[in-house]
Amino acid sequence: MADLQVLDLHASLTDRALNSMNFLNEISHHYPDAISLAAGRPSEEFYAIEDLHSYLDIFSRHLCDDLGYDEEAVRRTLFQYGRTKGIVHHLVARNLALDEGIEVDPEALVITVGCQEAMVLVLRALRADPKDVLLVVSPAYVGITGAARLVDLPVLSVAGGNDGVDLEDLVAVVKAARAEGLRPRACYVMPDFANPSGLSLDLESRRRLLTVAAEQELLLLEDNPYGLFPAAGVDRVPTLKSLDTERRVIYLGSFAKTALPGARVGYVVADQTVAAPDGSVGLLADELSKIKSMVTVNTSAVAQAVIGGKLLANDCSLVAANQRERAIYADNLRAVTDGLAARFPGGEVTWTVPSGGFFVVVTVPFAVDDALLEKSAHEYGVLWTPMSHFYDGDGPITALRLSCSSVTPDQIDAALNRLAALITDQL
Amino acid sequence: MADLQVLDLHASLTDRALNSMNFLNEISHHYPDAISLAAGRPSEEFYAIEDLHSYLDIFSRHLCDDLGYDEEAVRRTLFQYGRTKGIVHHLVARNLALDEGIEVDPEALVITVGCQEAMVLVLRALRADPKDVLLVVSPAYVGITGAARLVDLPVLSVAGGNDGVDLEDLVAVVKAARAEGLRPRACYVMPDFANPSGLSLDLESRRRLLTVAAEQELLLLEDNPYGLFPAAGVDRVPTLKSLDTERRVIYLGSFAKTALPGARVGYVVADQTVAAPDGSVGLLADELSKIKSMVTVNTSAVAQAVIGGKLLANDCSLVAANQRERAIYADNLRAVTDGLAARFPGGEVTWTVPSGGFFVVVTVPFAVDDALLEKSAHEYGVLWTPMSHFYDGDGPITALRLSCSSVTPDQIDAALNRLAALITDQL
Question: Taking every annotated instance into account, which residue ranges of this chain make up the domain Aminotransferase class I/classII large (chains A, B) (predicted)?
Fold first, then answer.
């Protein structure tokens, strides 16, 4: 039999980053009756199958009415191989101008199979040499660590601190890496309601981060899946990309939380120029497109049409389109933090009070590992995520992440009772 | 400005494989009025927007009626994050049993973003070490070479010969590689109406290839996008995978030609076992799934639903569903080979007469390069593909590929007149 050993396969397959996601998925399958404060899935409350049909129709009509396509060209656009950089780039560019204050040439956009493919394309392009490294603000989204593993790009952690990114540590990590002969290519950061920390950078921190990145000649990879979901009464802060005057920021975009994850449509803004040895100059987006042509060829035209239709149905602004979702997330976030306050008045257990997004981090006076999660699922009927999954090191981590995005206030109440019982029994 | 040099990016970006696709796309954009015998696109004749709607509905009803999902679960399946290995695996398994005689556990399937992602997942898993190499039957589809470049996996060419694969050369290449300390991981082959050669392996060659692969302890990567399109009167030959009794073959599947490319849905059959150091044994499909979770997370559920609906609408057989397309391709193939015979009676120009598929290779008594293609587009108004794009080396190649899949017989007639004028002017 032509069978294999895992140790003969790529090293990523035995790496924690790739197995973490698997473990977390499996545990929720094993305990389907446990209440899940683990999954970072969007709310399903307003999903309607009819919308898929109407979005497809709206996008088809747009191709005819606004772009002047004949029927054959419309069919070809939806069914056939097409433009590698995508077919909704002009709508995404309009969306970025309206919702994010980012003015970008649609040619500098690559529409991708979710934000995850965007990360893979960018890291694949940037990893040219064994000396290349990626800086990642820690604790970090598992997807960026996993993508880095797939392209053999080592990750150096930068402390997140209390403000979302510790700029002194960033400079220290860059300098130490360069002293070792390494080449830091970029720093990955989620400035708005980060997964998993829940932290956001304020405007001043964003400006300073841009200054430091310029001083250190570092690209910034800005990932922004949650920016449209500030808590009640909180104003949105401008994205790094909208403050970026020197093409320092590669912006990674997602429609998973603002439209629907099942389309798997994301994008990257890559307006950096790339000079070739023959003196010609192109856009980084075009280099990423070449890589994309060998990863997925195109992003599904059918899926792009659904997202294009949703954008068109909302005049290309998703802020207004997500008011109901924003209210749900804000209420849930408050239910979690208020619920924790009611159950843990003593100070032994602490938690973050994020200004938006999906995630609250709870710190407890004991190590939180996968065994405790298993116990929690089995004996207490509540799921959450050990924060250890978001750190690269092996040290014990005494915190867990709660996600409030796909549960009701009643489920939050019941889940927090169960969590409180678990925590109290550990103390 | 934070701008970049292409030489500071991953080496694949200056590689011919990644730039070839780009060059060929660009030339067809520059000469939109030239008749294209270049693109390997499927026929667009039977595309209908209504089908997208009805396929979505059929798949939704299947989830309810056949799988017992309630409405909430149907919505969740189409809109939300889901199973990494896909949601149409059971239908694809039925399709493989019916159309290909391949009996496979649906758990051994990973549904991918087109066949291209399947290649990337497999090559990423197999490339563990700098000594790993991939064998590819030459001339080769650019997508496999490009995918290999992205994971830094060197490619060794195996002669295709006149039968589709030269088994003596295969053994010689494996032995020479091993003598150099290299580790050949697999051999990529397209046994049916290959792109670009048009050649097919007969049944006896397939059996011998499986025997040689077993003797050499080599995996085979079988890619089969064109198998449903034999020429008129030609019987289909069993796939390698259906003849494979020892899990020697990883089967790469595509719906781009048999359903629609715009869905971007493909798959891989990976029923090999993988043993972990702790003694546990899983499926290669599950290892590929871990990689997929870091490349695209999921294949678009909306796109899978369209393909699932098309399969359901045809009782999971695409042979019958593609009779009209098969007839078009068979007629066109004949129009090309008959048309060449009528125009080049002398013997100085020769061509293959494939038993099916999309491609005819024309050999001429002069080197065929990109400059000649440019001249052909500009001065003669006909596009085709220099065969040099499908070879890894730099030597002059005196052949060109004609594709007959997305043109009419009248266009073929006109295109061959133009091509004949070009060739005659070069003689």
Answer: 77-419
